Amino acid sequence: MSAEATNPEARPEARPELRRRGRTRLDLRRLGRAALLGPTSRDRLPDAIGHVAEAHRAHHPDADLSLLRRAYVLAESSHRGQMRKSGEPYITHPLAVTLILAELGAETTTLTASLLHDTVEDTEVTLDQVRAEFGDEVCFIVDGVTKVEKIDYGAAAEPETFRKMLVATGNDVRVMSIKLADRLHNMRTLGVMRPEKQARIAKVTRDVLIPLAERLGVQALKTELEDLVFAILHPEEYEHTRALIAAHAGERDPLPAIAESVRAVLRDAGIAAEVVVRPRHFVSVHRIALKRGELRGSDFGRILVLVGENADCYAVLGELHTCFTPVVSEFKDFIAAPKFNLYQSLHTAVATPEGYVAEVIVRTRQMHRVAEAGVVALGNPYTTAPAAEPAPDCDEERVDPTRPGWLSRLLDWQQSAPDPDTFWSVLRAELAQDREITVFRADGGTLGLPAGASCIDAAYAQYGEAAHGCIGARVNGRLTSLASRLSDGDTVQLLLAQDASSGPAADWLEHARTPAARIAIGSWLQAHPDTVKPAATPARAPLSVVGARGGGGNAVADLPDAPVRLAGCCTPVPPDAVAGFVVRGGAVTVHRIHCAAVAQMRALGRTSVAVHWRATADCRVTLLAESFGRPHLLADLTEAIAREGVEVVSATVEPPVEQRVRHTYTLQLPDATGLPSLMRAMRDVPGVYDVRRA
């Protein structure tokens, strides 16, 4: 099944009266009752299973079709007499859903469960009958689909429905595959419903089902769902896009000629490859039009190059970039760094001598199958289990080896969501994340997190509610605050407090990105309203450091007999660029040139005085050290300062806030050049995560 539309005439519309009928050759994107059933009448429904069998055999030539035929007989007899709102026999729905999955390459067990997915819920058939007739595997999937109750498209029912869907999906991703195909067929036949109900269903599909299809890598379903939703929710933009594509259909398309040039280049290089033009689907054309404004002929599609091996992908890329002009900004390597939904390809763009820019996708045939069908293409994830191991009962939970990391996270936090509204909002926020990062734990394990996640998210992903006592983190060997954002490949070590009663601060919510962290923090804050820590570090009183303003040190002002003072706010030292200003009493205050006080002085009209440094090397400086609270920290810091041969003029330690402590030191250095070494020595003290000039 292709994820692209060929032209506006080949696209199914949201309005059923626009669909073509009566095709004898199956085209999934024109699926309707006639395409499904052929020219036979309603009383000859058994002929319809032939379409499913043909599509299934295309992917699985050796498949045993007897199971599908028995499942169809049970489904048809159970649903006999039931009608859809469109007036068609109800059996057309499970057949259409099964046909969608068969075109994607689903294995026999999934197709069997798909044929039966509504029987237990809507007919007299029981799970015991399904188990006895088709085995535990089919029973397990049918039970998972059945647990997702029929969606009542009311505002309150929708979140709980999808919560149940996630629980069922977590036990077997094939459950979600069936539900996505189920929604696609319902969207294709949505025209029989009232406009307001169409809009409600389309919005839920847009907010939840399409992102889920993207997460599961089922691009073929995702792109068609996007177009169907687009037609319902944005009819004017949809018609405008249709007009653009229709106008392009009557013009000369440059992509076939470019594709032929690519074939010639690869043929000369001895690379066996299949090169095809992939027209964009409606939403893709709409997005390109918004991005680029006026569209050119090459903007309506992309060139797809299919090869046999991974190494051939890079060989193709080398030939393309050698024989054409590459657009460097368009290059992306999703083979070396696959997307979170299993997607792998090389993306690039090349410019032709005629001035066209063509986007090119390079992948192996196996990558192409996974890109189109996602988890559906993975087949039965349990076939490698030992034959002697008994199959689980239908209500037993099991671990799916194909379950993506993001789905595991959803299953974890959905159990903690306090109410459906919270679940609904965080679900959509999680699905909106389009990129994942992988960070390494100190013990050698890994954590999968959404892009933009902080150390707080890593803490809750690793420790759960025990992360309430997290006081800091070490990222790539360096101490840092919990608010620090993580990058792909970072190594993170979380530091937990010994006090089991420790809890999070309210400002943690500002830095938490994952639903698990946000729900856990919010629940703790609600349960402990009297012990909530300050939401942010409280405003600190101006630091008063003994000796900070005493004397001008090595600074000399170009104003005879004027006393010189080094500003305590920035404590300049040689060779800092400085500025001097005359203040009350005729004294000259010296600031670093980038100090905020310099702008204030100029705004007040203070007289500016040139200042330079004496040749002597000693100086006085004020440093701020941020650390996690621990015993003997002050002694260790003082010892580190003394080892550098620096005199402590004064020191101030503020009360701990969230087990973090600020130290202020005014120091006399024998040589200003030793300041960087001193600051490094202070940072190396265990527990200290930042040292900076005042």
How does this structure look, described?
This protein has 694 residues and is an alpha+beta fold. 40% of the residues lie in helices and 16% in strands. The strands form five sheets. Strands 1, 2, 3, 4, 5 and 6 form a six-stranded mixed beta sheet that branches. The protein has a five-stranded mixed beta sheet with strand order 8-7-11-9-10, with helices on one face. Strand 7 (436-441) and strand 8 form a beta hairpin. Helix 2 (49-59) runs parallel beside helix 4, helix 7 (127-134) runs antiparallel to helix 8 (136-146) and helix 13 (235-249) packs across helix 15 (282-292). The protein is elongated and about 105 Å long.
Structural class: alpha+beta
Distance N terminus to C terminus? 64 Å
Strands, count: 21
Helix content: 40-55%
Bulk shape: elongated
Q: What's the mean pLDDT score?
A: 76
Give the percentage of residues in beta strands.
Answer: 15-25%
As a whole number of angstroms, the C-alpha radius of gyration is 33 Å
Output the number of helix runs: 25
The largest β sheet comes out as:
6 strands, mixed
* Uncertain stretches: 1-46, 149-157, 384-403, 533-550
